Amino acid sequence: MKIIQNDLVSQLKTIIPEDQVTANPTVLELHSKDESYHTPHFPDVVVFPKSTEEVSEIMKFANENQIPVTPFGLGTSLEGHAIPYHGGISLDFQLMNSVLEVRPADFLVRVQPGVTRSQLNKVLKKHGLFFTVDPGADATLGGMAATNASGTTSVRYGIMRDQVRDLEVVLADGRIIHTGSMTAKSSSGYHISGLFVGSEGTLGIFTELILRVYGIPEVITAARAVFPTVEDAVTAVVSTLSAGIPIARMELVDARSIKQVNLYNNTDYPEEPTLFIEFHGSDAGLKYDVDFAQKLAMENGCKEFLFETDSKARSQLWEVRHNLAYAFVHKSPGKKMMVTDVCVPISELVGAIQDARAAIDESGMDGAIVGHVGDGNYHVILMIDLNDPKEMEKAKNLNAHLVDYALNRGGSCTGEHGVGVGKRGYQRKEHGEALDIMKGIKDVLDPKGILNPGKIFID
Amino acid sequence: MKIIQNDLVSQLKTIIPEDQVTANPTVLELHSKDESYHTPHFPDVVVFPKSTEEVSEIMKFANENQIPVTPFGLGTSLEGHAIPYHGGISLDFQLMNSVLEVRPADFLVRVQPGVTRSQLNKVLKKHGLFFTVDPGADATLGGMAATNASGTTSVRYGIMRDQVRDLEVVLADGRIIHTGSMTAKSSSGYHISGLFVGSEGTLGIFTELILRVYGIPEVITAARAVFPTVEDAVTAVVSTLSAGIPIARMELVDARSIKQVNLYNNTDYPEEPTLFIEFHGSDAGLKYDVDFAQKLAMENGCKEFLFETDSKARSQLWEVRHNLAYAFVHKSPGKKMMVTDVCVPISELVGAIQDARAAIDESGMDGAIVGHVGDGNYHVILMIDLNDPKEMEKAKNLNAHLVDYALNRGGSCTGEHGVGVGKRGYQRKEHGEALDIMKGIKDVLDPKGILNPGKIFID
């Protein structure tokens, strides 16, 4: 960076309105961190653009002066994506938060990047539509596209990348492009929409998104199925997927984690591996699906299969899954949550979860295991004391162990949280020489290295 | 190219076994064309690699000597992808046609690029699985990935890109990379699998594919629904999609096209816009889906809704759709088929099909219209005399008119056939400055421009 902070602020104020540029220490501090355990770092300035044109002007200025730019949504990243380790500009999209257009017949919506998924769903509800991707946090859609977020519903509706039809992107040098179109499919040119989704702010800045949406299902039924072993539960999942039953969510929680919820909530759920399932469909079709899924679960050793369709009863049935993280947070005041995120082929999931449980227990730490089991993606939720180097070390070793286990079995180091800074060190092992191709693409799109430097690639 | 043909053949024979290299004129002629109306061009040599290592050696040699390389599957392209306009090597994958591994629990299969989809489905059937993408032609899976093929089933199961988990790719300089993993999802690094799919041999050569497969549905039901207008038919489609009914195929055929089938087959199908539908599901669930779809069709003016579950009866019900192209081919002996391929947002489909019909009629040519209507993708099938410059001109003008219509409404110039040479001229209009980004990526991956030169980009 060639400009000192004071000059940076004053020069930016000549480009966009003064009240959209600040170096207020409180604001800087808010933009120095995310929800992860990664070390905070202050930006030099926070800018709040109101339009694509403003973003373009900011990028032209930043590129000319080699100033790092890190996009910021709501800071819900779990891998440090929004932390500006090289300082420079934190580009906050909270003023670009409009739902621009709903096209019900096309099952499409056009939004600005600062719109959150709950905000979008509120608008869509009036049209009988909903946005499917649910990563837990009420993240911004720009952030979700940048990290290729997914979550509990991707087994049915796909991940964030599957929903993105078109992105308006401001490139490092301020050029504005569109990556796709409004069509359901296309074989025209390279699929750069898919390339930008998951690029974590390192290839360009998203200023508009066209996203796929779905009709709200007529009926939603939730179920909870208890199994004697993780293996039985996963086998039931594979049978259900093979049969083509359109499961909308399918979450595995291991026995130890349910025990923690019981302790915290004073409940008495069976402390055994449990599947939390959600079915979306029409009245008659769903009855059949639920019956069939129950039959398959029972054939695979299920001891208890409960289901509910009423909204409140559904919520209660899923209580354990919803309260899981909180049950661990509650017992560890002052600690920070660290969430691992590997993904394996489904055939490797039983072994992976058993290995993860053994590794957690061996480490002496306490941790929940929850899996988006239809996708082979699971998380270990650990509570760690950031000021205890020994505990940090243990947690990092456990994370590394889980990643190695997955990579040795055709898996991925991150199923949905992204690379950020936390998974940079595993990129070479996972991608081999393909990492050089990725870096080559990065260098073409951002020759001066100003776009979210320090993420995905090791500097 | 720096080497003359004789030297090229003899040098290649020092790299891989002699019987896998030929400049036999008949073989060259077979590799000079595809199923399209585009002008043939001979390669200098045809090479039949047997392994990834051989492909790598060929690419090292070709890159060093700046020799164009054009991959060849079965030549079913409709846009000239496999025609080696710059001569050089035609790389034919017929000896790399093994299904390497089936992983039923992972719903994955690992294949070589020369495997055809019917060959794969024969193997998968034993496992109760099937590969969903059905572009009509029995193309190779390498070719289908290279063009991002889709077809009738993509409304339910997605396009080729959605099925590709990992590609083994030999780069222009002979390096071998893997683009993905075996997991259902990943947020690790840039999504280069999606970039290579649809790159039409211009970024690298596929030597292995890991593809997603599905359980064979318990029951398949076919239906035919006749509507008074195209608008009514499309409105019924949107209602059905909104209701979340899991339709596996949904094809629209226009009235003029059915008339041609009646003439050719001596049948008396109602000469009105007709939807051909296929439902995949379980016994009870499907009954409900078909009833519901019928109800929605009737609410939208449907005059006749027939359905059949028995395999032979299903086939008969879809007879018109199956015989459509042939009915036009039959009446035009000596002519070649030209198939247009635009895609529009569904809300624009009614207007697009009405406009297409008017444009065909105005041109004085005869043409069928068939639409993958759930995707907004439709084809005009024209029979043209390649030796009649006036007719060629008319057909090209019609194609250009349809593309412009689509691009002016947020559409794409190709829904599933790819760019090849036929859609190069529309890339700038469709992609704007994004085309420069695509070209930048091409130059990083293929700095000497040897990979299928003359495709996607205008030289």
TrEMBL record, chains A, B:
UniProt superkingdom: Bacteria
Cofactor: FAD
EC primary class: oxidoreductase
TM region positions: none
Annotated GO biological process: lactate catabolic process
Keywords of the record: FAD, Flavoprotein, Oxidoreductase, Transit peptide
Enzyme Commission no: 1.1.2.4
Ranges of residues in domain FAD-binding PCMH-type: 39-216
Gene Ontology MF annotations: D-lactate dehydrogenase (cytochrome) activity; D-lactate dehydrogenase (NAD+) activity; FAD binding
InterPro entries linked to this entry: FAD-bd_oxidored_4_C, FAD-bd_PCMH, FAD-bd_PCMH-like_sf, FAD-bd_PCMH_sub2, FAD-linked_Oxase-like_C, Oxid_FAD_bind_N, Vanillyl_alc_oxidase_C-sub2
Statement: the UniProt record of this protein carries the keyword Oxidoreductase: yes
Pfam families named among the record's database cross-references: FAD-oxidase_C, FAD_binding_4
Family classification: Belongs to the FAD-binding oxidoreductase/transferase type 4 family.
Protein's recorded name: D-lactate dehydrogenase (cytochrome)
